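for the writeup, i need someone to sanity check this before i put it in the appendix. the sequnce is what the collaborator sent (i think, or maybe the updated version? ugh). structure was predicted straight from it, no edits. if anything looks off just tell me and ill rerun, i have time this weekend
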Amino acid sequence: MLARQRCYTLQSTEPLHANIVVNPTGMLEIDIPEKNQHLSSEFEHVHFKESRQGVQLICEEGDSVTHKELSLTLSRKDALELCEIIDDAIEEYEELMTDL
């Protein structure tokens, strides 16, 4: 059960990259180095939404005091790959918990 890291080029007017780490314990870590942005979101707060430019990855981070949302547009291919990685991580975690 290892974290998986990917770097995706965002579908935007600026040349931006998103470094995404899928942690099998249910967390998604996103860094956008060009904007010095970082966000951590639980899988249950990660959503995909189709748009004209590609697929929007919408991640929510927050508690009762603060709430941040990050929306990134990925190519359809990259969004599908990320969705599969998240699904695999969920399955691996569930198998591990069942084995324990």
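The mean pLDDT is 90. The helical segments are 76-99.
thx in advance!!
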